[in-house]
Specification:
Layout (H helix, E strand, L loop, with lengths): L1 E5 L5 H10 L4 E5 L4 H9 L6 H9 L2 H16 L6 E5 L13 E6 L20 H14 L3 E3 L2 H11 L6 E3 L20 E5 L8 H14 L4 E5 L13 E4 L5 H10 L2 E4 L8 H9 L3 E4 L4 H5 L5 E4 L4 H13 L2 H15 L1 H13 L8
Parallel strand pairs: 1-2, 1-3, 3-4, 4-5, 5-6, 7-8, 7-10, 8-9, 10-11, 11-12
Helix pairs in contact: 1-13, 2-3, 2-4, 7-11, 9-12
Amino acid sequence: MLACISKNDRASLLFEELRRLNPTPLDLGSLRSSRRAQLWGAISSLSSSLAQSRSDMNFSPAVAADLQHQTEAKLAKHHLVSHVLQWGAMYPPVPKSSAVSFSIITDGPFDPEDTAYPVEWRPVRWRRNYLARQRDVYSRAEYVFALSDWARNKLIAVHSLDPARVVRIGWGPMFSVEEPNLHPAEPAYFVSIGNQWFRKGMDIVAEAGRQIHTENPTIKTLIAGLPEGLKIPAMAGVKQNPKRVPLTEVKKLIAGARGLIVASRFDASPHIIMEALQLGTPVIGTDVCGIGEVVGGPAGGRLIGVNDAVALAEAMSDLLREDVREQRTRARAAYVKFGGWKRAAQIVFDTLQLNELPIP
């Protein structure tokens, strides 16, 4: 029997799709490290940078050990489990002495040599420790399921894994809708939503939005999410909403937009792209990490370089010149072709041959 577990909530929709294919897998839910583990992790991770201290705390041995203990405790209650599917490679879900095998889902490994990695992906205090832990997890896993080709290539390069064991599955949205919105309200606006505004390139979005508004005063650009350190000056035609946006509001904003902008400097596999495409909203995205795998080509939107406000403004102008209904039909078709969590679950199902796992 398969047991599914994650250190965050992102895996819930994938696990749900797996249960639609085969109702027997156990969903053991997502984990949260205890306050005691976080305290020990924080004390042992203090540095001159608050952001770096927070990052190191999250990757600390104390937090990893706590989550591993929780995982083993959950599995101990289910003696028929033969394989564990875990989202995240911070720790192995089962000890080496266990007869239970496991596979890992990841949106990318820690790469200490990649300077493009943001602070929340790059521990300093626990650099060697975390790399060694990941290396142990990946080497022991039966399969490593990567959300993107970018992540798959990273896994093979950083950890010298057998390519046959590293399977790209794609990813999906954090909410689902049945029908696209083919008729956005006028006047048109562009939207960019995300926390950590520097990593998300919101300064570039603002400048491009200003340029577009200068050319066409009816076009506005909305930037929403937690800035986390980046202050953007007020600009004509650009509205800032510096707060965390709930999913219900995310859906509403994207559905009514002429286009979603993802100008990230680093973004492994952003769910918001899938959320936009399934709504029929085209995406303008930077060619970093896994973004280009979805946005590349005219169907899903436009692909631009990093830190290029001029190219972003030109891409926004291109979208405004196209027929809206045709454009949004193509965007929805791009989402259907990519497959979302349904296709990802099917790949996992076929790879693990879940139909052959013992049924209690």
